[in-house]
């Protein structure tokens, strides 16, 4: 058995002694545990969809309910002050995942903020537009979304790049869909498939996979998916005409001016000299190259000083820190920023991250409760009896959760907790588990509709009616989802 399988087996296969100390002790056996699982998922969907409860609170409440229903004692769930050796399932679940995820997401968020505020996105888009020309402007926008989407969140990418889409569509007189959909496809693909975005990072932490494998499989599965999405964008963009939203053009100009004034107030004086394209690409590519090098050094090299050095610099924490320091110097200090300005931009970027980390942490709690109570093992046994491959089940579970409640992050962390015992059953390589993560991520973006905040953001920023957003954006996300999953499923046959 491979090291990853041993690790997963140790962490995912729960011992299932009779939990006689629980508040509810009537539920026993596989059928009872499956009933608990069904109640838990139904309750989670109800709290998020109907009650409109914040996903972090909903996941935490459902985790506690599932634990008690499955027979876990209060001590097993929460630990006690009197028994210092008592392990709290909730604390270990929360701490286990956040210890891996929080640093990566925090560093990645600050890196994206420096690239955004320094004008790196505008430079990237304008240079690509100049390189490809007017006829291939949609492709340039798609590549911009693909590259700039690596270090920035999806919504930030829309906010920063939307004015460039307006300008390109206004010059050509064509539908804004021709330019915004390729951009959105690039942003969405990187958000779903590649670290340091929360979804793939959280899944990697829950399933104990090196980020290097997640990056590699994210590229292998994501690039064909985004190509399919670009083909759909070109087709639908010629059939539905959406004019440039003038109100959003004016709002974008006001927002841009507000950002400039905010920068000046914090001591950042905008510079006329644009950032070099090579600098932007170098900063974005540095952590990816370092992490991938560390992953393959463990395969290609024997134990040696060279391998230790490569693995040190390729550790995700170190690689992202190096990239952030490069951004601080090349995009900040060298261009006249003060240290105070760098601190202000970095601190402000972390404010929206709190909600994401809490949701991811609560997902870790949910997974830990499923394992400790035996519910996850019961699900694993049942899914094995169904006979579907684990990668197909992972995709379908994530897809259903996504369509039902709208949040990709909730779909990913919940699915990862459910399928972890399935992966512990066999001798699976890290490459295979990374492909399972790709399937989960692909399912988490299927059919974005009215219960997804991204749906309304796309409709608002690009002036698309709800009906046309369903015809374009919703289908675009489904194309990305299905194409990414098909590539992952095919590759899993060989890995």
Which key features would you list for this structure?
495 residues; mainly alpha; 23 helices; 76% helix; disordered N terminus
Question: What would your notes on this structure say?
Answer:
The chain is globular. Mean pLDDT is 86; it is low at 1-26. It has helices spanning 3-12, 29-49, 55-69, 74-78, 89-117, 120-132, 137-148, 154-172, 177-193, 198-207, 211-237, 246-265, 277-300, 305-313, 316-332, 339-349, 353-373, 375-386, 390-405, 408-424, 430-443, 453-461, 466-492. With 495 residues, it is an all-alpha fold. The protein has 2 domains: 3-95 and 357-492, no CATH class; 97-349, no CATH class.
The largest sheet, given as strand count, sense and whether it forms a barrel, is: none
**What is the CA-atom radius of gyration, in angstroms?**
23 Å
Helix share, percent: over 70%
Terminal CA distance: 15 Å
Number of helices: 23
SSE arrangement, N to C: HHHHHHHHHHHHHHHHHHHHHHH
Number of strands: 0
Average pLDDT, all residues: 86
Low-confidence stretches: 1-26
Q: Which class of secondary structure composition applies to the elements?
A: mainly alpha
* Structural domain tally: 2
Apparent shape: globular
Strand content: under 5%
What is the strand and helix layout of this fold?
Layout: H1 3-12, H2 29-49, H3 55-69, H4 74-78, H5 89-117, H6 120-132, H7 137-148, H8 154-172, H9 177-193, H10 198-207, H11 211-237, H12 246-265, H13 277-300, H14 305-313, H15 316-332, H16 339-349, H17 353-373, H18 375-386, H19 390-405, H20 408-424, H21 430-443, H22 453-461, H23 466-492
Helix pairs in contact: 1-20, 2-3, 2-18, 3-17, 5-10, 5-15, 5-16, 5-17, 6-7, 7-8, 7-9, 8-9, 8-12, 8-22, 9-11, 9-23, 10-17, 10-20, 10-21, 11-13, 11-21, 11-23, 13-14, 13-15, 17-20, 18-20, 19-20, 19-21, 20-21, 21-23, 22-23
